[in-house]
Design goal:
Rossmann fold, alpha/beta, 8 helices, seven-stranded parallel sheet, single chain, 251 residues, binds NADP nicotinamide-adenine-dinucleotide phosphate
Amino acid sequence: MIRRFEDKVALVTGAASGIGRATSLRFAEEGAKVFCVDLQAEEVERTAKSAAEIGAEAQAHVCDVADPQAAAACVQACVDRFGRLDVLCNVAGILRFDYFQDLDLDDWNRILAVNLTGTFLMCRAAIPHLLDSGGNIVNTSSTSALAGLAYGAAYGASKAGVLALTRSIAVEYAAPGLRANAVCPGSILTPMTSGGAGLPEKVDPKLIRRAMAIDKPRGPETVAGVIAMLASEDGAHINGEEIRVDGGTLA
Ligand code: NAP
C-alpha cells in the first residue's frame, strides 16, 4: 500500500460503520494518524482499535455532528490530541424512506441536520486548522443528489446541499490553497443499505430499480480509495469536484 499520509492527521466522521470505517482504515494503512468520530461509542472504538492494529495512531471520539458545540469540540479534541489537522472527511449520514406526503417535518429536519448541517458545522470548525496545514476536505454526497430518489426527498435534498456547500468552500478557499471535494456513492454494501433504512409498504419497484447498481454492488473500500485519492497529493489539482462511485449506474 502506498503511504500518502505519513505525518498527516485525518478526521473521519461516521467512522463506526460502513464507508466511514473503511475510510478510517484506508488512511491508517496509508500512514495517517486517524481521529475516528461517530455517535456509536463501542463501534467507533472498534474502528480505532483496528486502525491501531494496522500500526496507526488512532483515537475514537463520540460526537453528534449535528450539535454545533459538539462539532466544534470534536475538531478541537482532534487538534489537541494530534497537534494538527490535514484532512476532514465528512462521512456520517442517515437515510430514511417515506412517501413524500408522509414525510414528517421532524424527520426532514433531522436528516438535514445530520447530513447537511453536520457537514457544514464540521467544515466550519476545521477550516482554520486546514488552512494552517495546507489540508483539504472530502464530503460525502450521494447519487441521490444527481438523480431523483423516490421516497427519499429529504435525503436527496440534504445530499444536493452537500454538493453546493462543497463547491462554495472550494471556490472561496482556492486561493489560500484549501481544496474541498465530494464523493457521490451509489449501491455500496453497508449497514445503511442492507436493511437499516426500510422502504414504506407498496412502493413501486420500477422507481427503486432505477437507483440500483447496473453492475454488482461493491463494498465501502471502493469509496474509501476514492476519498483517499482526493485527499492526497494525487488530487492536488482537483477542487470543487464530485466523483460518482456507483459502478456506472448514473452514467
Ligand atoms: P452507515 O454504515 O450507516 O454509517 C454511517 C455512520 O454514521 C453510522 O455509524 C451512524 O451512526 C453515523 N452517524 C449517523 N448520524 C450521526 C451523527 N449525527 N453524528 C455522528 N455520526 C453519525 O452508512 P454508510 O453506507 O457507510 O454511509 C456513509 C455515508 O455515505 C453517508 O453519508 C451516506 O449518506 C453516504 N452514502 C452511502 C451510500 C451507500 O450506498 N451505502 C450511497 C450514497 C451515499 P448510527 O448507526 O447511529 O446512525
